[in-house]
Design a protein that fits this description.
Helix content: 25-40%
CATH class of the largest domain: Alpha Beta
CATH architecture of the largest domain: 3-Layer(bba) Sandwich
Strand content: 15-25%
CATH topology of the largest domain: FAD/NAD(P)-binding domain
Radius of gyration: 22 Å
Largest sheet: 5 strands, parallel
Low-confidence stretches: none
Number of domains: 3
Number of strands: 19
Structural class: alpha/beta
Shape: globular
Distance between the termini: 48 Å
Length: 513
């Protein structure tokens, strides 16, 4: 950190340097904003890793109503229908915003946007940039735009540790950098910190994305929604690398199939087969692996010889593992990929705490329901960033009071990772969840480096215990059916602690009043 951020007090603070944070900052111009990033912009954000593109109804045979119908169907009864409607109807304009900012989207020889197909979409509506490098290209353009916007002050190498709340509203951010702790007084904070991949052993996300934004909101007392819904991508490259290289759903959209070691397409009898919703494909692959089979993606015929041209990032990852994707079967297994749950927000990004907003994967708008439709996440971040920025700008300034900065250690998800990987995987059961809750409760209250990741894990685990059914990405082997709990869940850290204590005193109990 090369500047004293204390001199930048009482301007809006955006925490996170991914697509959601950058777009929010850009939409707030010319208002002065402070953007805090743990790493150099674009270096450690899940956004830059995104292979899929943005879903938007741009084809001649498509319209927003069809995109909305596919989104609601994938969400398995838990989408906020009005939130989903507003976001998908705003998606085409968001693509235009990115084009104006310099994003080089893939186009046909005639100059039209090239539209791809992904699972559970009824039309080709996925807009890509650089083939399977969409996130990287979008980040390139946004970072350049942010760097050239005078109203945005970017401070890299700084990590938020706590949100300070006074009289029930945000008063500042306690952060840490190379020179020690620092307190930034502000009454307006936007969380844009990404997801929870670092809490799992098998993940396609940066290991540094360990739910710190959720921890910040939890310790401040915020309300969360749908925490139990964690999406596992069915086609991560099965090998020793962690994080696991992702093999985009777009490969299956171009005709690749899933087979076992005998060459059998064991998804043949599943409606939609390889392009069924992600939760269905992930569970089918998981079960086949559990039965002792090996599972592969077969792209030898389609896209075949065109593989490296269409998917250069994936071809490179396969090549590093000694696999020629155009000639060889690609070994796959499911891996944690996206968190549908997060800090509960309205469509302006406002949380339950005055002065706190959230945008992107850290937020739960209700768009994704129980199972995110492919490529809706980048769309959500781009669309909602404008609404968040407008809300922050329209909010009266509340000046935070100067406070002493105290040093808090960086979060370490290491002790939590095996617990969540086992208890909160593709399939779950009450016994495993209760065992995890017991350990996470103790860890979350010890004020150690694992405490914040444990607090996040505890809330997710308790939410999973309280949902005594299987729906979307949440599948319990002890409650394998949908039992009409078609309502979004809510959780706070205090409620999770109380529930975990009640589980301790009543081992057979799996619900609280």
């Amino acid at each position: 950190m090369s500047m004293d951020v204390r001199n930048l007090a009482n301007r809006p603070v955006i925490i996170g340097g991914g697509i959601a944070g950058l777009m929010t900052a850009l939409h707030m111009a010319p208002e002065q904003v402070l953007l805090l990033s743990r790493s150099p912009l674009g270096a450690d954000a899940s956004s830059a890793w995104a292979q899929g593109g943005l879903a938007a109804s741009l084809g001649d045979d498509d319209k927003p109503a069809l995109h909305l119908a596919d989104t609601l169907a994938a969400g398995d009864g838990l989408c906020d229908a009005e939130a989903a409607r507003r976001i998908v109807y705003a998606a085409p304009a968001a693509i235009e915003d990115l084009s104006r900012l310099g994003v080089r989207f893939d186009r046909t020889p005639e100059g039209a946007l090239r539209l791809g197909l992904e699972a559970a979409h009824g039309r080709r509506r996925i807009v890509h940039a650089g083939g399977d490098g969409s996130g990287r290209e979008i980040m390139r353009a946004l970072v350049a735009a942010v760097r050239s916007t005078p109203s945005i002050v970017v401070v890299e190498g700084i990590e938020a540790r706590r949100l300070v709340v006074e009289d029930g509203r945000i008063a500042g951010v306690l952060a840490s950098c190379s020179t020690g702790p620092v307190f930034v007084a502000t009454g307006r904070v936007v969380l844009a910190t990404g997801g929870i991949g670092g809490l799992f052993h098998d993940t396609t996300n940066p290991l540094g994305s360990c739910g710190q934004g959720l921890a910040l909101a939890a310790r401040a007392g915020a309300i969360f929604a749908d925490l139990e819904f964690i999406q596992f991508h069915p086609t991560a490259l099965d090998g020793p690398c962690r994080p696991m290289p992702l093999i985009s759903e777009a490969v299956r959209g171009e005709g690749a199939t899933i087979v076992d070691e005998t060459g059998r397409r064991f998804l043949d009898g599943v409606p939609g087969a390889e392009l069924a919703p992600r939760d269905i494909v992930a569970r089918a692959v998981w079960r086949h692996l559990a039965d002792g089979h090996r599972v592969f993606l077969d792209a030898r015929e389609k896209p075949g010889a065109m593989f490296a041209r269409q998917f250069p990032t994936i071809a490179s990852a396969c090549g590093k593992a000694g696999i020629d994707a155009a000639r060889d079967l690609i070994p796959i297994r499911p891996a944690q990929h996206y968190h549908m749950g997060g800090v509960a927000v309205d469509l302006a990004g406002r949380t339950s705490i005055p002065g706190l907003w959230a945008c992107g994967e850290v937020a739960s708008t209700g768009l994704h329901g129980a199972n995110r439709l492919a490529s809706n996440s980048l769309t959500e971040a781009i669309v909602c960033a404008r609404w968040v920025a407008e809300s922050v700008a329209a909010s009266p300034e509340h000046r935070g009071k100067p406070a002493m900065a105290s040093d808090l250690p960086a979060p370490d998800p290491g002790p939590v990772r095996p617990l969540l990987s086992h208890a909160l995987g593709v399939t779950r059961d009450g016994k495993g969840l209760k065992q995890a809750a017991r350990t996470l409760l103790a860890l979350s209250q010890r004020h150690e480096t694992a405490s914040d990741p444990a607090a996040v894990g505890l809330m997710i685990t308790v939410a999973a215990l309280l949902r005594r059914e299987s729906r979307g990405a949440h599948f319990r082997t002890d409650f394998p059916h949908d039992v009409a709990m078609a309502r979004r869940s809510q959780m706070t850290l205090d409620a999770a602690i109380a529930a975990a204590l009640e589980f301790e005193s009543s081992p057979m109990l799996e619900s609280v009043a």
